[in-house]
Amino acid sequence: MRHGCKINKLSRTQAHRAAMLSNMAASLILHKRIETTLAKARALRGYVEPLITKSKTDSTHQRRIVFSYLQNKEAVTELFREISGKVATRNGGYTRILKVGRRQGDGAEMVMMELVDYNENLLKDAKPAKAKTTRRGRTKKTENAELNNVEAKAEENNLEQANTVEEVKNEVEQSAEQTPETEEKSE
After folding, report:
1. How does pLDDT run across 17-50, given as a tens digit for each residue?
2. Does the structure show a pLDDT above 70 at 175?
3. pTM metric for this prediction
4. pLDDT tens-digit series, residues 113-164
5. CB atoms closer than 10 angstroms to residue 53
6. 95, 114, 180, 183: which has the highest count of C-beta atoms within 10 A?
């Protein structure tokens, strides 16, 4: 009985499961996206994300730890050279699972698992990240700058309104001057 065991054994022995996850993690790192079942993808997420976190600090010790999990030199090199640079600012959530439907043969739910920072279609739509702000009170420097901006805009608006008022008066005067002349001509 499972009784609260968090690990999905995927109907495999421990050695088979470790080898499968190692192979899938190496494939994900090398190809940036793989297609698999939902259960395997969820198990792989818990396996590969700590490895990506370890790759943020590039040291011999961290490389050896990651290699002990992956058993693939090319995948370790790719992880520490390219992927670690892209995920340096991210605090977690390096992978994304997208459901693609059910498998024809047995009806297993299939998913596309990918590294988040490598999907070019979704990155085009994404807005640039805002700078992290803190909740501090306004400083006098910013208050003075904002006050000056508001005063400058108010002065511009007043000048524009004054110009438009003068223009309207001139137009009214011109139309008033033209109206008697046109009445006299018509008589």
Report:
1. 999 999 999 999 999 999 999 999 999 999 999 9
2. no
3. 0.65
4. 999 998 877 767 666 667 777 776 655 566 667 667 767 777 777 766 666 6
5. 16
6. 114
